[in-house]
Design a protein that fits this description.
Blueprint (H helix, E strand, L loop, with lengths): L2 H24 L15 E4 L2 E4 H4 E7 L2 E6 L5 H10 L7 E3 L2 E5 L5 H38 L5 H6 L1
Antiparallel strand pairs: 1-2, 3-4, 4-6, 5-6
Helix pairs in contact: 1-4
């Protein structure tokens, strides 16, 4: 493995860690409506389990409202059931062929809980990035020990 391979591998693994964190942050329910809150809810429809984003259009017509419009009106009940069973804490309201999800305001206690939770998530991401960096440096030290990398090359990493 060359110096460039080590750098490339470390960069890719660190980017994966950051992307995962961003994905996790998107799924956190703040006070604002976001399709990311519900798009990955598992819905049992057509004899299999599918993600909500595969079965419906999710829009935010207002800052505190999500509207789910199923592509097939026959899946409204399945989607409603899945949203009720999910852990997002939002009660769906069926209005004909669409489902409305009003986002309640956050209480002070919930805000503090969110801050703690997001802090833990961010720290986990930092730990993963540090671990990726440590692996890359260990690989570089092995190259230096084998004589394939100079002291300056190791320091540049």
């Amino acid at each position: 493995m060359s110096r460039d391979d080590i750098l490339l591998e470390a960069e890719m693994s660190m980017e994966k860690s950051v992307d995962y964190m961003v994905h996790e942050f998107a799924a956190v329910r703040t006070g604002k409506a976001s399709p990311g809150l519900v798009e990955n809810v598992d819905v049992h429809a057509y004899g299999s389990t599918m993600k909500l984003k595969q079965l419906a259009l999710i829009t935010t017509p207002e800052p505190r409202l999500l509207v789910v419009q199923p592509f097939d009106a026959g899946t409204v009940q399945d989607i409603e059931r899945a949203l009720k069973e999910s852990k997002i804490g939002i009660t769906p309201a069926v209005d004909g062929k669409i489902i409305r999800l009003p986002i309640p305001e956050l209480s002070e206690e919930r805000r503090k809980e969110l801050v703690r939770s997001l802090g833990k998530m961010a720290e986990e991401a930092r730990v993963r990035v540090r671990a990726n960096r440590r692996v890359a440096l260990d690989e570089a030290k092995k190259l230096k020990a084998a004589g394939e990398l100079t002291e300056d090359g190791l320091r540049d990493l």
